[in-house]
Here is the input.
Amino acid sequence: MKQIATNKKARHDYFVVETLECGINLIGCEVKSLRKGEVNLADSYCRIENGNLVLLGCHIKNYDKGSYSNVASRRDRRLLAHKREIMRMLGKVKEKGYSIVPLSMYFKDSLVKVEVALVKGKQNYDKKETLLKKDADRAQQRAIKEYSER
Here is the structure.
């Protein structure tokens, strides 16, 4: 599994409730750009349209050597998942406060996979609490390392 891109902003802004691994419908030049790592998931999100899971706002840079076969860099891309998984997520998204956001994009063998998550938004005090907890954990690990070196 080779990591292409991660959405760090999503883990900071949301509580991850449930994750799902999906395939993605791409064109050849987009795959070549992904192999070079030219993708940005920062402002992307997913929506369910006509029973299909669609990735919106994901920027995949146009391939340099792909002339006529290049497509729009921010086009909507269909995610490939089982119908029952999509319907289960649709039921949760209809509840207040839930969204579907991509967390990461990676190669699994030769296939491109997208890890999407059902998320619930964090308030500002939740974000601060998470940062404080992370700092405390880091300090604790540092103290353990210093103690074990003595």
